[in-house]
Amino acid sequence: GTIPPGGSSTLTLTYNVTAGPGTTINFCSTVANKDDCNLRNNQCCRDVIVGAGKCDLMCRKILPNPLVSGEEATVTIVVANTGTGTCSGPTVVYELGAEGLDFVSASGTGWICVGPECTYPGSIPAGGSVYVNFTYMVYAKPGEEVKNCVVVKNPNDTNPENNQCCAYAPVVGRCDL
Predict the structure, then answer these.
(1) Confidence class for position 131, pLDDT limits 50, 70, 90
(2) DSSP characters for the chain?
(3) Max Cα separation, the chain?
(4) What torsion do the CA atoms of 147, 77, 125, 108 make, to the nearest 10 degrees?
(5) Is residue 42 very low, low, confident or very high in pLDDT (cuts 50, 70, 90)?
(6) What is the value of pTM for the model shown?
């Protein structure tokens, strides 16, 4: 198109940044037009420093399906960093309570658990995940369904909207003749 004298036109470019945090990128753009009479001002450059990225934790629960009334069940909580930057610790996972289940214990490599609350003091890199297991005694009756939820918290998390995860499972009984 035509740009009138004193006018302008805007072009927006989107890039996938692959440089690491702290890297300086020298961005330069050049314009050209066959009718341009001053070629000395056709390039502009700017140094841009790549930021550290964003921490975005989410959780997922892996619940035995079905649960067996009167037996223990181990629930695995996967805490994943879906962000572009490292999530520095601490990360805390705590159980919201579930009708039909009694908390027994919690453990995981690198986790410090006190009751139904576990803390991971380390960092979780972008794309990385850590696991913690919660064990419950199932007291719900056969035929019932149990809903179990946990919340994940980290002070650096930029998206707390995906920090609660729940799982549902039916309860069955064992035949004992």
Answers:
(1) very high
(2) ----TT------------SPTT-EEEEEEE---TT-S-GGGSEEEEEEE-----B-EEEEEE--SSEETTSEEEEEEEEEE-SSS-BPSPEEEEE---TTEEEEEEE-TT-EEETTEEEE-S-B-TT-EEEEEEEEEE-SPTT-EEEEEEEEE-TTBS-GGG-EEEEEEEEE-----
(3) 97
(4) 150
(5) confident
(6) 0.71
